[in-house]
Amino acid sequence: QAVPAGSHVRLNLQTGDREAKLPDSENGKGDTREERRKRLGKVDVDSNSFTSQELKKALAKMKESEKAERKVSSLLLSKVRKKFRPIDQLKEEFEKLNVKMETDYEIMVKLISKFNSSASTLDEKVAALYDLEYYVHQV
After folding, report:
1. Can you say whether residue 107 is alpha, beta or left, with left for phi > 0 and alpha for psi between -120 and 50 degrees?
2. Is 127's pLDDT higher than 90?
């Protein structure tokens, strides 16, 4: 529900409800309903006061803003796709250059298998653990 500007809002911890209190007028007395309407203008705090036309207009505005956001996100996505290429494409291009590209995950799997291998020496296992520690911190 909309709360007019200048209202005092609090959370009732016993009931969990949010409560709003309009500020007192300058003379210390509470405002009458008519005085509040004059001061607040068209702001209506009654939640059942919206007409179906107002709700339809608000929904149409939401849909328009959602379409605009989609256009912006698709534009940004196309810009990103122009700058960056998929990893599979990069791997193919590196293979043509005789350069093997591995992801961190692939390297970590190799290091774990090297550590678990009975054929590895103690120095190789220690080196694998140090390298694995580096990659784990990267991830």
Report:
1. alpha
2. yes
